[in-house]
Amino acid sequence: MAIVVQRPKLSLAEKLYLPAVLGGLFLTFKHFLRSLGGKSVTMQYPEQRWDDKLPPWYRGAPTLVKDEWGRERCVSCQLCEFICPPRAITITPEEIPTNDPWAKVEKRPKEFEIDMIRCIYCGLCEEVCPEQAIYLRKDYAITGYSRAEMKHNKEKLYELGGVMPGVVNKWNENK
């Protein structure tokens, strides 16, 4: 059974399209006059940057951080790898030798890699990390000349992340 839909009756102005065209021209002319006044909405990117205008909720690229003493915060729990929607994170865990003073932690990342081409900057890896080892840095210019440069390994991630002071569950003696 077909449903009959009644078309609305158009006025003369709607049939001619002239008022819509004139309204668009008026709006364009208004923007043109505003740009002549010196108020520009276009940012000249290499010279002007967003660095001082980034909102506090901005999510940038994920990095790994160390504590004040230079120890790795990551315990290779692999929660970030499992929760990553595009599967951009790859972790290969290894055991810490028993003669190491931090052997109670059991694991550390042997290899930690984030494919920045696949990363969607959702922030789930930062939220799920129980040891506060992953942080999203306030950077929006992540570039490389090849796909291989866009795969950040553990050393590159620690170089970008730096040191984050504060209590870390991994080194807590009461844990």
Brief overview, please?
This protein has 175 residues and is of the alpha+beta class.
Written account of the structure:
This protein has a domain at 70-162: Alpha-Beta Plaits, CATH 3.30.70.3270. It contains five helices and five strands. With 175 residues, the chain is an alpha+beta fold. The mean pLDDT is 86. It has helices at residues 12-16, 18-36, 79-83, 124-128, 154-161; strands spanning 62-64, 89-95, 107-115, 134-136, 151-152. The strands form two sheets. The protein has a three-stranded antiparallel sheet with strand order 2-3-5. Helix content is 24%, strand content 14%.
What is the molecular shape? elongated
> Remind me, CATH topology of the domain at 70-162?
Alpha-Beta Plaits
Side-by-side strand order of the widest sheet: 2-3-5
Order of helices and strands: HHEHEEHEEH
What percentage of amino acids are in beta strands? 5-15%
Number of separate helices: 5
Instruction: Give the termini separation.
Output: 70 Å
Largest sheet: 3 strands, antiparallel
Mean pLDDT rating:
86
Rg (CA only): 27 Å
- The name of the CATH architecture of the domain at 70-162 is 2-Layer Sandwich
